[in-house]
Structures are given as C-alpha cells and as structure tokens.
Amino acid sequence: MELPGHAGMKQCEFVVAKSRGRCLSLMPERFRESSFASYQPRDPRQEKALALMLGHPAGSWYLTGAYGNGKTHLLYAQYRELVTAGNVHCHVATTRELVEELRRAEFDEDFTSPVFAAAFRREPCHLFWDDIDKLKVTDFKTGEK
C-alpha cells in the first residue's frame, strides 16, 4: 500500500513469510512447538525465568541449570517469538554447529559464516547458542566429530 505523498518500498509479504518459515524449520523437531505459552515451570526459578523472558522477549539471556530443566525449551520459545515478530535477525546453533561453522569459515574461502555476516551488519542480531557446554576442545583441534 502506498500512502499519498510518501515514497518507499516494502518487502513482499510472501518473501517475509518464506524467510520466517525457513528460520522456524531450523528448530529441532523436538522443540518445533516450543513457545512461552507451552512452557510449564516446575519451580520458582523456572517461573522467574519465564516471567523475565515474557517481560522482555528481545532481551539477552543466559540460561543455566541441570539437564531437563527447560533451558532449551525457553531458548526456542524466545527464538520463535523473535522470528515471528520479524524485527531482528536471528541465528540459532549448538556449540558444535558454531565450531563447525567457524572452522569452515577458516578453511573454505568460498564460505561466509552467517555468524560473522550478522556481526558485520549494522543492525540488531540475536544469537541463540544452545549446548554451550557440550563440546570438547579436542574435537575442535582434531576435527573429529
């Protein structure tokens, strides 16, 4: 829609919807339905984390805790929220995926790391980094999987 007296351009809504769909398809199958509404906190710490994230869904959060406490659910709930809102570029990866991306950027001159590309754009970007503690340094050094 063009307003009288104003010139400009708008990205095709089909292209935007396709991009959002591609971003949401990057979510692991297990977390495809994750949302803030579907998160069920089991203790006061989880309730507080949910309340904080709901209050500021575009915030930067570091979630820590034992296995099975809903950290990844909340990560993907926030990712879904931001991708759906469409106001910020989002990148989601596990530690292993990030290391492989950075390794490829180092050794493949035809590859551009999405993380590096986002860092050099002068616009907001949100990096969702899952399993921060799940990589052995030796895996990176030797290239083993």
Account of the protein in words:
By secondary structure, the chain is mainly alpha-helical. It has 2 domains: 14-87, no CATH class; 89-145, no CATH class. Helix content is 46%, strand content 8%. The chain is built from 6 helices and 2 strands, in the order αααβααβα. It has helices spanning 13-25, 44-55, 71-85, 95-107, 114-120, 137-142, and strands at residues 89-94, 125-130. The chain has a two-stranded parallel sheet. The longest helix is centred in the middle third of the chain and has 15 residues, at 71-85. The protein is globular. The mean pLDDT is 83.
Write the layout of secondary structure elements.
Blueprint (H helix, E strand, L loop, with lengths): L12 H13 L18 H12 L15 H15 L3 E6 H13 L6 H7 L4 E6 L6 H6 L3
Number of helices: 6
Helix amount, in percent?
Answer: 40-55%
Number of structural units classed as domains: 2
Shape: globular
Relative strand content: 5-15%
Rg is 18 Å
- What oligomeric state do the depicted chains represent? single chain
Total DSSP E strands: 2
Low-confidence stretches: none
Mean residue pLDDT: 83
Order of H and E elements:
HHHEHHEH
Strand order of the largest sheet: 1-2
Structural class: mainly alpha
Please summarize the sheet with the most strands.
Answer: 2 strands, parallel
